[in-house]
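[audit] Reproducing an earlier prediction to check determinism. Same input, same settings, fresh worker. If the tokens differ from the archived copy the diff job will pick it up downstream; this log only records the rerun itself.
[audit] input (292 residues):
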Amino acid sequence: MISRSTWLHLRIPFSFFLLPIFIFAVSVSPHPSIWKTLLVFFILHFLLYPASNGYNSYYDKDEDSIGGLEKPPPVSKELWYVSLILDGIALLAGIFLGWIFVTGLFVYGLISKLYSYDKVRLKKYPILSWILASFFQGAFTFLMTYQAINALPLDALTDSSVIIPALLSTAFLGGSYPMTQVYQHAEDARRGDMTLSRLLGIRGTFIFAAVAFQLTSLGFWYYFQTYYEGMYFVWFILCLAPGLVHFLVWTVKVWKDKKFANFRSTMRLNWLTATGMNLFFIVVGILIHIKN
């Protein structure tokens, strides 16, 4: 039996925050296979992401709150083994989707391990870790999903109609990524990790997120205006409105007292934003496929 500590550190519910990338790829796919879509969903959210979470938790050995886990219990070697087993199962299951997808799973898993692995620990390098995390959780995952569920050759992924939403996925995650670190400054400092949020400072992190959101929003407006309908952007704003309101109210509180840059406020922002994006892409996907 797997211990409770190991289950908690796999942080399966945390995969919800990365679900928008998968739904985005499905929503704009021309002819997604139902069984392939379900298999990709399972592999990513119940195997690959939990394996990555567990592996990094094993090497981080956090004592304070981490993403999706307010009070992380001590880790054991079991977590390391379970993480590798989940990775192995993901690769085996990926065979049914083709060698391109399997290769993508392997590369993603490798980079995610180097994030916290003590001999490399990409987490120590603020700019590099931000670029890699944003790219692999964003554009790379979008392209992996898009290719697998539509059974496309690699050269089909170079079309601008595919590249633009992939880059938007990275832009969206890149803008929100430092916010997931804003309450961990003390823990990161204790280990000597200079994350992007620590580099920016608490107020700088909020400013960075606000500017990034505006630029990403312009990108989404251009994408839907060019390839679909500008009206879709209205849905984008409506679905993200609750998260935006929370962010603005939270920013005012943090400006008065930095103690409000805490775990619970961060997780509330993550849940509101992820829920809004998931809803948005579901609505857009339905509208696109109805019209097609």
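[audit] rerun output stored. Observation attached for the diff report: The mean pLDDT is 93.
[audit] end
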